[in-house]
Specification:
The chain contains 11 helices and 15 strands. It has 359 residues and is α/β, with parallel strands linked by helices.
């Protein structure tokens, strides 16, 4: 459930409304005042088609409803669009590669602004940690600003001419700063690089990146050090069939896929061997109901090592990106936490995008 306000016009009259979104932004309650006894109820398909369920007590014309629906659409675009991007850096080679990837991606997404952010807080990491923020002694704000300015100049030729590149540095803790900046900048995507140890076989993602994966209010794109950007045409959405209809952020994922003009491959992962369990059959039905409008391809894996199964499938179809919802699909912990086999380390050229589960 999510609540926000919108403004819309009926003739020359400007109105404000309180909008509460339910069911993956497919059902909406609209009130002119809080706890209105007979609110407006609207449905919106995943393709953006509106239907009036209850018109409420106010005499609003069909044209007025169209204005209201357009205002809600505009607000949803702010929530799920990637018109603004936040890119984190510690000025390492891995971070530079992530920034370069993000700049190229911003062109495909037609991003309006890209903010480069560096936290120069002194951070003490555990021996196996790797992080998008430097563990060196605290830098001065002047040093950080100088490096960010140089980085901005490097990236300028890689983005579209109209894309604005902003820079920001401070000493706030990483997750706090990121979430505040996401809200302030209306960032639809956070991009971070990863620095691995022992050829990424021991640790894929370090403590700060894992904190971001668990707490970032915006989708998080994790760019491996060897990733080279190419136009994203094929996306794998890796999921199991538990809580599919409850927590999958369909609108956000679909918005990204549509913005990229990519093909979506939904990969079902069977962790429990319950392929024909009645609950599983219901979840399969829910999955199709949520996604069929976008014409995705459905696939299935029961690989004993889920992480390898996902990456092998992605490699087989020539995927450019893997996305998932880590708090819902716990199998992704096998990528985030455990020591990786050589085979999985081989596939770390593939960027990983993590979406937040809907409450």
């Amino acid at each position: 459930m999510e609540t926000f306000s919108v403004q819309f016009k009926i003739g020359c009259l400007e109105l404000s409304a309180i909008v509460t979104a339910f069911d993956h932004h497919r059902q909406f309650k609209i009130e002119m005042v809080t706890n209105e006894p007979a609110p407006i109820l609207l449905n919106r398909s995943t393709e953006g088609v509106w239907a009036i369920v209850e018109r409420g007590e106010r005499n609003i014309s069909d044209l007025g409803f169209q204005e209201l629906q357009a205002a809600i659409d505009a607000q949803l675009e702010k929530f799920i669009g990637v018109k603004h991007m936040l890119v984190l850096t510690d000025f390492s080679d891995a971070a530079l590669n992530a920034c370069t990837y993000a700049a190229a991606l911003s062109k495909q997404l037609k991003t309006k602004s890209l903010m480069l952010y560096h936290s120069y807080e002194s951070i003490l990491l555990p021996p196996t940690g790797s992080a998008p923020v430097s563990a060196q002694a605290t830098e001065s704000s002047e040093d950080s600003f100088t490096k960010l300015t140089r980085l901005k100049d490097v990236l300028r030729p890689l983005v579209a001419p109209k894309t604005e590149i902003k820079i920001q540095s401070d000493e706030r803790t990483l997750v706090t700063a990121v979430n505040i900046l996401v809200q302030q900048q209306h960032a639809g995507l956070v991009v971070v690089g990863i620095t691995g140890k022992s050829k990424l076989e021991r640790v894929l993602i370090g403590s700060n990146t894992l904190d971001l994966a668990n707490n970032s209010v915006a989708p998080l794109l994790i760019v491996p050090p060897v990733a080279v950007f190419k136009t994203i045409k094929k996306i794998v959405f890796a999921c199991d069939l538990k809580r599919v209809s409850e927590s999958t952020p369909v609108l956000a994922i679909k918005g990204l896929v549509d913005a990229l003009g990519a093909t979506l491959y939904i990969l079902n992962v069977d962790r429990d061997g319950a392929s024909f369990n009645p609950d599983t059959i219901k979840e399969i039905s829910d999955l199709h109901q949520l996604w069929d409008g976008g014409k995705p391809e459905y696939h299935y894996t029961d690989h004993e090592d889920t992480a390898i199964g996902i990456m092998e499938f992605a490699d087989k179809i020539g995927a450019d990106l893997v996305i998932t919802v880590p708090k819902v699909y716990g199998f992704f912990d096998s990528i985030l936490h455990r020591s990786l086999t050589h085979k999985l380390a081989y596939h770390t050229h593939l960027p990983l995008m993590l979406f937040r589960a809907e409450p």
